Amino acid sequence: MTLQHPVFARWPARHPDRLQLFSLPTPNGVKVSIMLEETGIAYEAHRVDIMANENQEPAFVSLNPNGKIPAIFDPSGPAGHPVALFESGAILLYLADKTGQFLSADPAIRYETIQWLMWQMGGVGPMFGQVGFFNKFAGKAYEDKRPRDRYAAESGRLLGVLDTRLAGRNWMMGDDYSIADISLLGWVRNLIGFYEARELVGFDRFVHVQRWFDRGLARPGVRRGLEVPAA
């Protein structure tokens, strides 16, 4: 079996019968690797080094015109036809539908779950990422701390929303672990770890978030997914 897509000229598939993941262990990247590990889908991971601008190479852009990780190529898509997808939230929805896991078939619960996934995509990801820039990366050197403090305050507000949601719940949707949880775990981990913003956003006041986060990190699929693709 030979996969017909320009991306494979740069990242050849050793196991062309498996779903192909193109990613890096970033907060967005691990959403998909965690989902793949949790569902048990056979997949092959390809490391795309964004620091070396590999995500801007023509082969990768042929898979994702937006030039961002993660992206997937599934040789066994709907009706047996190959499908290529980018955007981590869209991939989570696709994998949930493909496997029948981590997204309820009940329409009301399904859309409530998607609502929280969109909340992560539109709020948590962008805001936490800005905190990372201004607190950890180039923006750290800016003398004017108002941008950093603005994003830190908004990130704290979002954590408050998350904390309220998790009060009395094990997971975002109650007793059932879902793609809403998967979408958030990597971002919270980076915010308080790699981005070094635990004190900046006052993370320790969000006790329900802390319990949920520890519960998530205890899952074997999460732990494995956080390390994919390997260095």
Describe the 3D structure.
The chain is of the alpha+beta class and 231 residues long. 48% of the residues lie in helices and 8% in strands. The protein has 9 helices and 4 strands, in the order αβαβαββαααααα. Strands 2-1-3-4 form a 4-stranded mixed sheet, with helices on one face. β3 and β4 form a beta hairpin. α2 crosses α7, α5 packs antiparallel against α6 (146-166) and α5 (107-135) packs parallel to α7 (179-192). Residues 106-231 form the GST C-terminal domain. Residues 16-103 form the GST N-terminal domain. Belongs to the GST superfamily.
Spatial strand sequence of the major β-sheet? 2-1-3-4
Shape: globular
Mean pLDDT: 97
Report the CATH architecture of the largest domain.
Up-down Bundle
| Cα radius of gyration in angstroms | 18 Å
Major sheet description = 4 strands, mixed
Helical percentage: 40-55%
Would you give the CATH topology of the largest domain? Answer: Glutathione S-transferase Yfyf (Class Pi), Chain A, domain 2
Total beta strand runs: 4
Structural class estimated from helices and strands: alpha+beta
